[in-house]
Specification:
The structure is a single chain. The chain is mostly beta strands and about 120 residues long.
Amino acid sequence: VQLQASGGGLVQAGGSLRLSCAASGRTFSSYAMGWFRQAPGKEREFVAAISWSGGTTYYADSVKGRFTISRNNAKNTVYLQMNSLKPEDTAVYYCAQRGTGNTSDDVAQYDYWGQGTEVTVSS
């Protein structure tokens, strides 16, 4: 399985970015997907997850109402729309694929990881 994340960059506080993660290697539509992030000197943390069908989504409290996770199973791609960005959102963002179709916020539950895309929010 390969996961290729893209869409990161530098944005001012209050701005928006859309991250994408293209997957290959196994049947994308069978597996839940997640986004995690890791800021310098901190542990990797959960951001959002989406079930195999897209029918269930789950967010960290810190991003709820600002970020939206979605997926297009025909394109084997998961997205993270990030609005109202804050400086504390600055991190490397990783997409990950779980071995089942249900969501999880546990890093250890995800089998495959992308290379990360960097998001920097300036104040």
